[in-house]
Amino acid sequence: MLLFDLMVRFGALSLLLFLAVITASRVRQTRKGRLQAILLTACSLSFCGPLIIAIPPPHEPSPVVLGAAKLVASPNIALSFLFGLAVFTDGFRWRTWHSMLLAAVTVLSFISRLPVSATWGVWDQRLSISMALISAGLMIYLLATVIRGTADDLLKSRRQVRLVFTIGAVLTAGSSLGAEWILPELAKNTWQAFLGVVFAVAVLAWLTRFQQSSLVFENRPAVVETPLDPGFEQLEEALKRDQIYLEPGLTVADLGQRLGIQPHEVRRLISEGSAYRNFSAFINTHRIEHAKARLTDEAQDGIPILTIALESGFSSITPFNRAFRDVVGMTPSAFRREGRSKNLRDL
Prior knowledge:
Number of strands: 0
Distance between the termini: 85 Å
Structural class: mainly alpha
Order of helices and strands: HHHHHHHHHHHHHHH
CATH class of the largest domain: Mainly Alpha
Strand content: under 5%
CATH topology of the largest domain: Rhopdopsin 7-helix transmembrane proteins
Helix content: over 70%
Number of helices: 15
């Protein structure tokens, strides 16, 4: 059993280090996927920490190596969470709360790995429980994000990855809990190492298809260089003619029903005919153009922005403001003021 554990453990370490090296080598070569590449590199290195910490005797690491491994392992939960968000959330941007989350989880996790003293024992137990709850909360939130975004996702490959991720997360959590209750300590550690192998192989297969030259992070070009599909042009024409985009809560299935085509065909037309990867982003662009025209119309100066947002197809002012800033680069209020100033200058 010991020999098998070491073989699996060092196999997992080798694969994770290999994944970190080839991902790091692409950081400077990919612009839009740079953040994802950095996070995946950090994830791969961080996952090496627990594998080193749990090396069984008589091959256990020295105190210096053990301390370094604990430090490296501390942010792995937060890094996994942030990498998942970066991959499955279109337009993901690094924000202040991401840094705060990463720092807090790293510090708490590192403290929980310190040797337990007589006076620290009770607090150590509470901290361990807190870390388990934080980890579970982050993974549940990520899983909900992955599932919630499936219907809007226009990329077939990424929808498949969402399904695989969901199944894999459930199976991993279930098997880990089962191993914790059933298996002896060495077997539990071996299972942890085996999961490291599965993770590394799965990510390598997804990102590289086992070819370093094809390492990708599902980036799409800003401009579509291929000729537009006639079907996409017809879809756009119908959207604008009938203003279907003004319907609140419009889904892929709803649009397909209005146009008389299947939802998968709607996804294909939009994905291949434009740079959009997300249905909501595609529809919101049309809604924002409609709202912009109304905000710059002098005859509608007295109409509240909330009314314009609701009549443009948005469910409330918050998603409207967020989508407007993403598309236009300023708030609706600032855009309306700027439009008024321009109208006055034109008089």
